[in-house]
Amino acid sequence: MAVAATTILASERVSAQDVESWTLTIDNATTQPVATGLVAVAQGDQVIILAEGAIRRVVDSGRYDAGWHGPAGQTRLRRVGQPVAADMPYGALIGGFTSDDTQFEHVGRIGSFGVEAAEVGQEFYVSLNMSDADLLGLEGAVTVTLVYVPTGSANTGEFILDDASPDKLPTGFFPATGDKFIVLPFGGVRPTFGSGNPNTGGWFGPGGRPQVTRAGQPLPDGPYGSLYGQVDTLSTPFYIGDGGCWSTQPIDIGQELTLLLNMPASDRATLSGGIVVNVIQVPVPSPAAEEDPRIDGFGSAGLQISPNPMVGGGVIRFSLPQPGPVRVRLADASGRWVRNVLDEESTAGPQELSWDGRDENGELLPAGVYFVQLSTVAGSKSGRIVITK
């Protein structure tokens, strides 16, 4: 195909990216570090990581090697070959926007952080903080879910439940049809009443104390002091505990989400500490007005880009349902158009277009995330390209 030049308007922008998620499993057959497929698009976007599961080494060599532990790791153990040996729990989930696992930071069971400028265009990697030899002798597995939240694609809020909180803390979040909620709590509380029950002493987190039941707690059968949510004042509050993710139900639409601790008000007034709750409301994606499902290409999105990630260019494949004008162009992560790859009449059927990895001025594009847009008389489709060096 010949490439025809077209003036690119600076005011044009690609549409905002939707929330995306990935799930992977780390076990004794895994090669670390693990590339997750999550690539940072823009500074300020949010990354959320939820890990679950339990692992243990089959061959024990010390008193703390035995037994199971979760993604937070074994804090009392150090072993030769840990990627991050200093101040990092053995076997904990660690990760970073680099394949060098010695530079990873602690993720644990729950992590949430913003993308920094230097991380844009980089892929996120994860590992368990143990040697390859220990990983081979592992029993069990850790499942990791990663959620990428572009700026403006979700509503977020942080709330604190402590001794000054009302019975039900309003969040200002009102569910709409198809919305999803992600709740990430952390912190600890300690009631100071004395009851002679040894289980009531000490600190506990959002999961509460299942050994304790106190008169006046809103949910008598639920763990004492645990985190609950409620979206309809007539319905029973639901357990959130250490974290939760759910989709909006018809009865919830238009009702405000409230948060509460499962303890009587008199106990809550004696609390030391607090539970910090991060709430993320992910709206149901709205289909682009110009997008048409009749563009049926090689890939499920109407586009196939290979290789992806790529170094110095690649091939863009698509299929046209009818002849007519076709435009293929690329934008950077900020939405600025950087290259008009094709703008001409084309026949119907499968198409293949080579791109040299350069911008409109003939310069090689730097590493990062880019978006390719295919526009035809039938509609428009978009795909993502990752360029590495």
TrEMBL record:
<dbReference type="Pfam" id="PF13860">
    <property type="entry name" value="FlgD_ig"/>
</dbReference>
<dbReference type="InterPro" id="IPR026444">
    <property type="entry name" value="Secre_tail"/>
</dbReference>
<feature type="domain" description="FlgD/Vpr Ig-like">
    <location>
        <begin position="317"/>
        <end position="377"/>
    </location>
</feature>
<protein>
    <submittedName>
        <fullName>T9SS type A sorting domain-containing protein</fullName>
    </submittedName>
</protein>
<dbReference type="InterPro" id="IPR025965">
    <property type="entry name" value="FlgD/Vpr_Ig-like"/>
</dbReference>
